[in-house]
Design brief:
Length: 711
Amino acid sequence: MTIPNDETIASKAHLLPLLRGAIAAVRGHRLEEAERLLDAILNQEADFADALHIKGHIAMLRGQLADAAALVQAAIDKDFHFEDYHETLGKIRLAQGDVAAAKQCFGAALTLNQASLGAYTGLAQALIAEGDYEQAVAALRNGKAVNDRDPELRYLLGFTQMARGKPKKAMVNFRIALALNPEDQRYRSAYARALRGLRLTRPDPELIDSVLPLLGAPGVEPRDLSAVVESALLLEPTIAGLKPLTTNSSAEIAVFLQSPASPDLSKLPLLMAWLRYGLVSERDLEALFTALRRGALALGLGDAAALQRHAIWLAALAVRNFHAEYLDIETEEEKHRVELLRHRIRKALAKIPAGGTAPVALLTLLGCYRPLYREDFATILPSLPWPESLQELKRIQLGEPLREITIAAELPSLTPIEDATSKNVRAMYEESPFPRWNQPVLGNDMPLARHLRAALPLQNIPEITIEKPRVLVAGCGTGLHAILAATSYRDADVLAIDLSRASLAYGKRKATELGIPGLRFGQADILKLGSLPDRFDVIESFGVIHHLREPAAGLAQLVMLLKPGGYMMLGLYSEIGRRDVVAARRLIAMHGYSDTPDDIRRFRTDLEKLDPELTERLRRSSAFHSLSDLRDLVFHRQEHRYFPQQLETLIGDAGLEFLGFEFTTPDTLAHYRKEYPDDPRAISFAHWAEVERQHPDLFSNCYRFWLRKPV
């Protein structure tokens, strides 16, 4: 948005202060104030093109696309020779799904001004929507000649390069975009995804400096960064110097930790951040941290004062172990010593004078082995003074879990839970809330139709006029999915349900901390959802109904709650994608492992000997590196898996229309369209069966796909 041309100013100069104020209000996201100023202008000059244009821009931001198009078209009719108007109309047409009209608008803008950066990026977005990545790159290169430091242009360049199978080039552009605008979650997420699988063979401090701010940042999945972070840690001289400790006895490690040669690991920023936010997956790092833990345990029982100087990095390790749910195996000697440690802490707590401090070094050590909130002395710990450097551990292992216990008791029960399988699955998730997470993935706040078009770029999504969509997240687990949905659909009313109160409490606490509006949680069984009076515009259920005794029955309940014309996103297991999981489950049954925490740890350790190749493949999954994730991965008490043709039957029997699979990056659909030009919408299950046969890991997580209920 710009100030009008000289001719307009000359004839309507008295309205210029109002126009300036409206533009400033829009830029400050004060849309109601901007509209009042624009209405004041239009009450005096009904044909003031700039006011019509800005009012149309506001309508576009609100998702009122038909009104927006009419207002901007009126502005163009009044003054055709202003490229901003054509750019805005192009964005509106693109949001409406009319790619051809959008391209015409951006072309008109470029005819009027060949240095219009917004027209180049808009044209590139339209070409991306058509899957024409080569022409999109050409448009972006033209835009780069205008301004090569525009973050959105760099982001779109990275996006097209990912689609063309060039992640290294994409990484460079995402990194530039993020440096130009560090607060944009899209840039953070895209840069992290481009880094997935990148392993350093020599130190790269500049790259690591760009990675560090991503750790703990919303929108970044730790698994995307595990390879680059952990390869960098293994190259760190301090870490490399400690690796020989893994073969030492506990007593020998304790002596080393007590010596001046023992480094202060809290001085390694990357290590501290990874322990707090990541999932340790490298064997050498797992072995090192396990060795340091048992050495610290021996030291703490022998000389608690000497343990004090290690308290800060031990607290970070305690946070990591808490998030991994103490997945690392313990020796019998360690178990005995943990009991001694508990006894030592109880004695120390009994002797604390009024105003005294908690025995924080010993508590930090215990937190490396057991969750502090489950101890019989847990309730008195929050009231004791803790040093500032250990407040994070106090919050994560005491404050938050104790708060969740209160929340769980207060949650509403929306349906009875009577099915035997549902009760069994509920018990599992009460013991192991899933998934454990500590950094949210927030959505890009968009109107419903625009969100669907982003998820389904090859489909013809009609304009949707619902301003406050009702969304159901069926089987929300610990709330990660629910928070993503609540921040993705503009002005949505989101209901998130799950069997497990422990999982729901985790999600509700996180949502409250993040200040997520319009998100409600309740305990319910999908098999009983049809009894609810609510009806929804969108239902999302990822990784859930395949755990029901009869998935088709659960899907039928969801269909009952979906409004005619409504949309549903499902995530279901692939038979081919889960082939390693099936092999692991076979071993579990053969050797008699139960799904208790001790047996899960034992199986994870034994698997190295039972099937080394299978172990290598499973270790690539982030689910292999926390207890609840591993339990859900290979120890689940109930699961069904599908081939594409079986999905077709399930969907058809439910009376739903298949709209296509959703992918996080565009390259899969781009390759599909080249391979199968006869199926431009990419909805042939027969074709997808062949794609999966050729690429068996494509759906290793889940099939993620969208459906529509006929009107």
